[in-house]
## 1
Amino acid sequence: MDSQTAVEKNGTEASLLEKKIHRRKFFKFSGVAVASAAFVASCDKNDDDNDGVNLGSGDVGILNYAYALEQLEAAFYTQVVLTPYSGISALETEYLRDIRDHEVAHREFFKAAISGVATPIPNLEVNFSSINFTNRDSVLGTAKAFEDLGVSAYNGAGKLLTSPVYLGLAGKIVSVEARHAAIIRDLITPGGTAFANAEVVNAMGLDVARTPPEVLAIAATFLKTKINASNLPTS
Amino acid sequence: MNLKNIITEIEKADPEVYERLDTRRNSMKQFAFAGKVLAAAAVPFAFGSMFKKAYGQTNADIVGVLNFALTLEYLESEFYKAAVTSTAAATASAADKAALTLIRDHEIAHVAFLRTAISGLAGTPVSFTAASFDFSGGNGSGTGPFATAFLDYKVLLAVAQTFEDTGVRAYKGQADKLIPNNDVLTAALQIHSVEARHAAKVRQMRRALAAPNLIPAGVTLQPWITLAQSGIDTGNAGANAAIQSSYAGEDVTTQAGANIVNIGGQTIAANEASEAFDEPLTMAQVLTIVDPFIK
């Protein structure tokens, strides 16, 4: 191509880019989550149909990952509130009801947010056979495990998101999960340092961060539905 | 050179590329103009220059964020160092003292970690000492609205709660600036959730205090933030107003355009809808909040 053609081509493309930027800006201000059409299309390419629910790739994959974890937590606390353990205190009831509401809100939020840009994963089937819902130790022990797991999952997933909008939303949620984790730990061991002891905060003052495979290996105990995270970003 | 394809490739790695470029409208316009007059061979150079402008200053930005965080960690660590040995803490239970001591140790660890991280990025960490701060909130006068913080345990915990909730919001507000550096972003998130654990614990400690505990009548103080309620009434209007600036904007119940109240047909009240999401503060908001505590 001669230089004149190249120049015209580039000039045209530059104006197309400006149009695209304006369109993106419109999406931003109209409250629609920032999404890329190319990205959404890529999500359906690599499904391994025979290997469980595929979370997908890119930012949507990470949102589906969070949606899966919030589904698990919401289902757990819904059951806890429905069938309170024996000897539950008024304070525990108050906190567990609030936590249930928060987790249900997170679950429904992710469903709505993903629906705006892609097809969210379906409802997951849980397996709570290892939990004795009539027993305080069993319920609060599970709650502690879920909350610490959730904190570590969001801490580990932040870097996998490319959109600052999604990162901001994950940040708004993870600190609430950390509040839950601290108070559940405090209910189990009243007073003292259980809320942030060396099980979860290291000598540098850092909380736990886990990769999606690490998190899902732990969560798998509580899920009948198999999760396929093979297309999630790893860095 | 196919500009559109290149931008599409970059978009795969950075979906925000359009926003970044859009903040550089002049560069973009200059580039569009340049495309018309430059020879094709010169286009890559103009293109590189445009991206340098969009992505430049990255390391300096990150060091700036970390020094901001370090300033807050110094504030907290010096506060808790003084708090655990204070007259006020002498009236606290052994369990409460253990909790405050653990929080102190975490804040000291955060200072050390951030100093190392900043030096590792070839930046210069800021330095503060106990003498840098006025925990009365008096800008160095020592007679600010929180002058009894180290004398009265309920005031001490009210200030601690405000610092912790502010710290959570401060880290949250900077996360997007750390996207270019995965290690720093992850570490900041790991500190952020520790601050949230602290905040929840301090709130629980306040709730367990016998009245008068500075919790306003009719307010049930919980480990999470309900609407924009501080859950603190010092009896001093100036102090209350200072505290309230740390909770402004926490009452939102809409996230990314989705109304969280009764979302998805579930019964979610406004209180819980606001509690379920903590909100960020900008660096400027945080610096205004902490300014009275720095001499």
## 2
Amino acid sequence: MRAADLRTPAIGIDSVEHQARLLRLWETAPGLKGFFGTVDHKRIGIRYIVTAFVFLVLGGLEALVMRLQLAGPNLSLLTPEQYDQLFSTHGMTMIFLYASPILSGFSNYLWPLLLGSRDMAFPRLNALSYWIYLAAGIFLYVGFLTGNGPNDGWFNYVPYATRDYNPGLNEDFYSLGMVLLGISVTVGAANFIVTAMRTRAPGMSINRLPILVWGTLTASAANLIVVPAVSLAFFLLWMDRQFGTHFYEPAGGGQPLLWQHLFWIFGHPWVYAIVLPAMGMVSDGLPVFCRRPLVGYAFVAMSTVATMILGFGVWVHHMFATGLPGLGLSFFSGASIAITVPSAVAVFAWLATIWLGRPVITTAFLYFSSMIILFVIGGVSGFMTASVPVDWQLTDTYFVVAHLHYVLIGINVFPVVGAVYFWFPKMTGRMLDERLGRWNFWIMFIGFNLAFLPMHLTGLFGMPRRVYTYADNMGWNTLNLITSIGSFVFAIGVLLLFVNVVRGLRSGARAGANPWDGPTLEWSVPSPPPAYNFAVIPTVTSLHPLWDARLSPSATASSLDRGMLLEQGKETIGTTSLDATPDMLLEIPGDTVAPFWVALGASGTFVGLLLKNWGLVSVGVVVTALAVLAWLWPRRALGEREVAS
Amino acid sequence: MNNDTAVAQPRDLPVGPLGRAGLGWFGVGTLVATEAALFSYLLFAYYYTGAAAAPGWLLEPHPVLKLALPNTILLLASSGAAWYGERGVLTWRRRQALIGLGCALVMGTAFAVVQYFEWRSKTFSLGTSSYASLYFVTTGFHMAHVVVGILVLAAIFGWTALDYFSPRRRLVVSAGVVYWHFVDVVWLFVFTTYYITPYLGFGK
Amino acid sequence: MRPLLGYLDALGPQAQTILPLTWFTLGVSVAVCVIIAWLLWVAVRRARANGGALETRAVPIERGANGINWIRTGLVISAIPLLITLVWTMVAIASISRPRQHTELAIDVTPYQWWWQASYPGQEPTESFTTANEIHIPTGVPVLMRLHGGDVIHSFWVPKLAGKTDVIPGQTNLAWLQANQPGRFRGQCSEYCGAQHAGMGFEVVAESPADFEQWRAAQLAIAPPPSTPAQQRGAGLIVYRCGLCHQVRGTAARALSAPDLTHVMSRRTLAAGRLINNPGNLAGWIEDPQDIKPGTLMPNQYLNARELSDVQAYLELLK
């Protein structure tokens, strides 16, 4: 080993000179170069969050127009084709362009701060995952805004999605857009997995990870394995549509149910991937407002993983009515019933934490605690559909629509809004207004339940899904009217969140480093954090570093003020996977526009594929390849090649 | 109150990736995992469609191995060459490295060319039936990965020629070679599925 | 008023097997929600403070009780209804997957965008007939439905009698129906299938075995010849215009891509359950189907007033 290959990092405390040196190394350049080239996880995280909220609003507006159409029988505000594109785009937007990216955004922002690190494992890949997400979202919405939005529902069954029945560009936009989006999700997942395994603060052993980390890690491991299924499904659909293949079409020996298997093998783990990180946010945030640690940390962490593992084995419950043999039905029914067990662990843990704690009611607390009952309502309606014979009546009715909105809004949206109230001070250095927050909460809570609780009844009364109108004598009139009214109330509630955020940015009260007196590492740095996160790398000895002194006065406290300085370059510490023992110094790349160019090249390629313009495809592929080459070109500063001898 | 704090004070930490110990190794691991999943789903599509298909689904009940079997051996050999080249980097033998990586590059390209002729020799095309579609798209996906692998081998060949690497600083070489081995292993599964299982009775 | 597509009233053995399990799971679900809501309410009511950051910081941190028992107890209590549901589910699946006795009658149902073809096969071609959107069955016996995939995926659902079965192109799924008593049972397509998915209803009419045989015999009859001049003109229009898609047995209208009209006036509804079958609705449908069901595959006919009344005059014969 040459001397320069190894270094003993200097240990010390923070100082003004040290901070200045770190800022020079870490801060993103101003102007366009910084905008297109930043690899700072905090900036990327905020971009994800803002973009995801834009899509939330778009998806919400789509829903409101649908609810106007459905407010009464036989209305003709929309043609069937318009309605069909609206409900499909609404589903696609919420599930793919909001629900996962919002959690990626919070995780991106928070993980290094929670883990005591200065950035993610692959900062450039991080930037790429955002740019491709943005590109895919724009690609899909260009389709929608030109009247070529998806029109076969978000799960897009064949043969209706094939060219014979769907000749326009709608399904091509959806198919190619989803393949492009899949790249973003996959690289993001890889980043989270390696970050969690290798870039933690010394001492942050695996049993000291915040539950948000467990949640996103689990979701990422799942996504890595199942996103290829849906990308493949869409790719094969595009092939059937544009190149005359016969994957799905029976006349040529294809199998329509192949689509459903490939889609749901992805789709079911996906719905856990879009709630487990949010459950993690509740598990990390709720205890702060109960002034005590979470009950049953180990149970909750293990149940997160168990839920995901079981989640791989239930996909056929979306296909109970397709004519499968009884043995298969029983197995998947059993697995679907069983999965309520690990998911319930978190509910009991949260209830116990509130009951055995000393709760303080704040807006964030209201969101984190109310989601418990919304979770349970969504969970039990899911339990009902897990029973095959019951599902044979419930499936494809508004009962399932009620179920899915309770689980998605209850276990994703409400925790996310709580997370906004909880972490906004950290991200911006300002507090959100509590009074407005209460209005925000109650209007959202009342509006949501007004809209979706009656929907269970609408479903029990037989109203099928995806109908653009209904006859006068079906018995659904009043229920639909109530749902439509509730949806508008809910929308007003959501609007208040944005009002509060804008007001907070302009004139919110200043927040210090730890306004809520929280236990985890992100609360030990200034609000907002400097570009380098931690001036000195902390060493942790517990799950609650900032509560050490009070919870376990006799134990060795975590070290927050004194630690590795790591100021020789843009670097952070690499640690082992289980025990988080430091084992290498990680050289972090600086700002670079290579990820942006890769995203641009990939987008060009996909636009070319959509238009079957092979020249554009070639240009896109070449640009992508060259940008990847530039990205991967070995650099001395990163230790990827030898210093010149 | 206990005033001890535990400050991690590690000594002699590697600066950046040394040998295979680096984040890039985990990165290529996640790449391999996700691509392996992709090929699993492609093969699932074959077995699912074939199991449900009417008799006569196999357009070649006895697949012709004349090109495919030697080609498989060629690809396996190219992995051997890549391994040999990587060892050259590991033992600071630049010549061995260039020969090994260069041969892998040539053999990989030869595999692609032979595969192209294999495709041309088929009596069916992409749109003939579900079997045909599965065959061409699956081997096509593999071919796309081969092409990427050739570009990767070319890049690490070039960087080796520019004398970038040493036994310590060479993670990208190891990562690239692992990717090439992965492409090889995938081919074994694809080859077995399409060329061997018909002889074992599947799809008849 | 009971909702037409509601399944909380069960009028056949399958629905009657499903309904108690539905009530049980619903009851468990409501009970769980009430218990959790109560626990949450009581827990939150014990809040020490209400406010923002200052109020939060003012409450000191304490480790608090271990609380693992909450999780253990919760899991154990939840396991019981889960287990009962699982066992009951498996029993119910076994019970309703197949009819309990041999089915004498089998009907071939083929859904298309956006209507339901029902063929009643007989021993001879002369004993077979096809109808649309109104499926008659005798009461008290199980009737086999052979569900053939036509164009896209649809789903066959008669809530008051049984659960759903998808109809998938390339395969034939088997379902069975049995009604305890005579009655009209509304059905609805339950898998999104395109623009008029919302308009793809149907009716299952259960009749006493005697009435059913009477209906079957009547359906076998071919169309009577037109007698009045209006009917003759109407018949001509039917053959040369409607016959491009529709069939009227006994005439030269022999196409199979739209509902069989041989006995259209014997049906209670038109347009897959969208309209009651009366002269006004019939005229409106023929004149402007796109207005009633936008996107339907039946194009507007642009008949003038006399042509329309001639057509209706002939159709009146097709009882």
